[in-house]
Amino acid sequence: MNKRDLILNLLDPNTKSETIPAAFFLHFDPAYHLGQAAVDKHLEYFHHTGMDFIKIQLELPFPAQPQIQKPADWKTSLPFFSIDHYEPMLKVVEALIKAAKKEALIVLTLYSPYMECNNMVGPETVARHIEQDPDAFRIGIDRMTESMLQFVRACIRLGLDGFYTSTQGGEKARLSDPALFDTCIAPSDLVLMNEINQNCIFNILHVCDYSMPYHEITRFAKWPGQVVSAGLDLADGQQVTSRQAAQLFNRPFMGGLERKGVISTGTPEQIRQAALTALQNAPERFILGADCTVLPDTPWDNLRLAIQTAHEYRR
């Protein structure tokens, strides 16, 4: 069975495979963010680790927007980024599709419009503006969503298999009123995710806890995506198991290892044992991975060992 079939069979609840897929992601040095260097580094990493699909890292920052000082500025001061802004990233996507689509499914990280707004203006300012004038902020984030939607559609036209869609904003301490996530952030996420889910065969919903934990993740249970990836350590010491997450979301779960844990600094035996523990406690449909992007200095051999452990494991 090739890597494409291995993953696609995982999405079919009526099909079982002896092999458990695995994949880990990390950010490369800036020298490998764009151009042929990015293409070559993604392929080198994919082949060295033996992971079961290719995830393209989205390394295309939006410029800072210091002119957005007050909530009303979101109505008029956030520029609309045309498709030209995304062209360097589209070239990487196109080249990797041509080079490796026959070998494996290819997905692209997609950060949410809210996350990109944070990157341009600052998370504290964005949170304050949402709370002071949510209607004004919605005008700005809608403009950002329309810009990103043209990028998503261009990737789909190139033949991308799917996206790793990352949501933030619903964490426990992000906003003083959690309902503002539902009215000011979630709609923009869902515009992109629904478009993606209607046109791509393999999408991963990533409930990102990189910045802070969630009080609960049940609000995302019906969000689009064929696979779910989420941190299992919630706020106030609460925990969710990978089996509970798979049952809650009613789809395959990806994760099992902590990005800053033994996968980063452990000995080979510690890594193998941690992977085995995750596999023994995993749901039936499962991709071994980390709860988010692993540290950039994580040895590739560590990841290869965890992936080999998944491939050799039998229930």
Top keywords for this entry?
single chain; about 325 residues; alpha/beta; TIM Barrel; seven-stranded parallel beta sheet; 7 strands; about 10% strand
Task: Describe what this molecule looks like in 3D.
The protein is of the alpha/beta class and 315 residues long. The chain contains twelve helices and seven strands. Strands 1-2-3-4-5-6-7 form a seven-stranded parallel sheet. Strand 5, helix 9 and strand 6 form a beta-alpha-beta unit. It is globular. The model has no long low-confidence stretch (mean pLDDT 97).
Largest sheet: 7 strands, parallel
CATH architecture: Alpha-Beta Barrel
CATH topology category name:
TIM Barrel
| Structural class category | alpha/beta
Give the ordered list of helices and strands.
HHEHHEHHHEHEEHEHHEH
User: Helix tally?
Assistant: 12
Average of pLDDT = 97
The residue ranges in which pLDDT falls below 50 over 5 or more consecutive positions are: none
Q: Bin the helical content.
A: 40-55%
Ends apart, CA distance between termini: 18 Å
* CATH class category label: Alpha Beta
**Relative strand content:** 5-15%
User: How many domains in all?
Assistant: 1
- Strands of the largest sheet, in order across it? 1-2-3-4-5-6-7
What would the principal axes of the Cα set say about the shape? globular
Radius of gyration equals 19 Å
Tell me the total number of β-strands: 7
